[in-house]
Amino acid sequence: MPAKTYGSAVFGIEAITITVEVNITGGLKYFVVGLPDNAVKESMLRVESAINNSGYKMKRQKVVVNLAPADIRKEGSAYDLPIAIGILAASGQLFSTRLDQYLILGELSLDGGIQAVKGVLPVAIQGKRDGFKGIILPNENAREAAIVDDFEVYGVGNIKEVIGFFANTLELQRTIVNTQAEFSYNINNYESDFSDVRGQENIKRALEIAAAGGHNVILIGPPGAGKTMLAKRLPTILPPLDLYEALDTTKIHSVAGKLSASDSLMTVRPFRSPHHTISDVALVGGGTNPQPGEISLAHNGVLFLDELPEFKRTVLEVMRQPLEERRVTISRAKSTVNYPASFMLVASMNPCPCGFYNHPEKECICAPGVVQKYLSKISGPLLDRIDLHVEVTPVNFNELSSERLSEKSEAIRERVTEARNIQISRFSDSPEVFCNAQMSPNAVRKICRINDTGQALLKQAMEKLGLSARAYDRILKVSRTIADLAGSEDIQLEHLAEAIHFRSLDREGWAG
Q1: Where are the domains of the chain?
Q2: Between β-strands 302-305 and 114-115, what pairing exists: parallel, antiparallel or unpaired?
Q3: pTM score
Q4: Dihedral of CA 245/250/251/253: which sign?
Q5: Which helix (H) or strand (E) holds 39?
Q6: How far is CA 103 from CA 8, 63, 84, 160, in A?
Q7: Cα of 342 vs its chain's centroid, Å
Q8: What is the biggest distance separating any 2 CA atoms in the chain, rounded to whole angstroms?
Q9: Looking at domain 3-166, does it have CATH number 3.30.230.10?
């Protein structure tokens, strides 16, 4: 008699319920149909060993397993457990009226143990939408799925526990996570703090502005000036994740298999710092079986590119579209997958190959023209998407040895959150815009108005400092953010002047 169990397939960060149909008839071979990949086809060998080693019998008959809908490709090892339970039910070794009430996920070991799988959170969310009562899955994934409210989650360690549950001979312990309490408890749980940084007050100010407006920023300075240390502390001053953002971020890390057994919900903004040898596929996502890349793993957080000119040109150029659209579309012959990629880009670089161009004490030993050649590794279109150019200078001994405590991240974060709340209210009629950095050119003209005196200052700055035309909109956006931090309805001259200060790389002659 045919039997049905239910699994799930993940595409992008969404899931589709898969019906696992098993039929056993006269014959000898095992067949898996419904567009399975090699990992799914190999599952029959793992299933046979797991069933036999658990005290049950794999029938020496023709076993046909159909994964429906049959026109969707099935990938991975998560179908092992639903296939095994389906075979036991179809062969009459398991009788249960609850097989249609639960999703089943898990990779089987040869001894019947159950191993962790990827993408559990979107599966649990979709399972609840589809009306299932709960989900049976590996112990390591239980907390991850349990953040879905009003959905029964049972973690299991071997196939005998699953059989006992469906046969009503074993009662499993339900995994329960208080999502709201865990979210509230861990929301500000950061290991580092801005109070650790000595000196660099102007750089802290620049990062506060960047965080308040969601602006991309590049830090330029010699080795050891503190660029990486400052960048790593940027997430600590960003507004806390709300519950929707936390779920969205956790789904991506779930699909990528980046959550540990102790994790249930990501409560702090991600910080991703890939090495400069990274490939373009690893950065934006893709592969034969598309997976999210670093820019998607940085969704709702920070992507830090240290030593920006050392990255391959092709790697940097593929970021241009995601920076604008805040999502990545990966197209294959038979499918298209979308991954969100709304992140803040923070880049750092030395001003030249030796690292000491414009250094107050050390002399640059680079040959003429080398500095300009080094900077030209960063294309104009990419630089156009970076709002703040910040020069980082070394910290002197007196500041390093000072006992005076710096301002804590919590105090800065409060100011940043207030500024973001102003922007959320401002863009309430624009569902795709959440901060000043995301304003369109038309919105800049309407929202970032300046008076005649401000226009004169901006004109003078562009002429005397040799600022490029692309700097115009960027300066206005940053000015608007500075005004928001100050609680000002209008952009004042001091706001405009401070924004102009943060356009170092646009100045003629900066690189000699």
Answers
A1: 3-166
A2: unpaired
A3: 0.87
A4: positive
A5: helix 38-41
A6: 8, 22, 13, 17
A7: 8
A8: 90
A9: yes
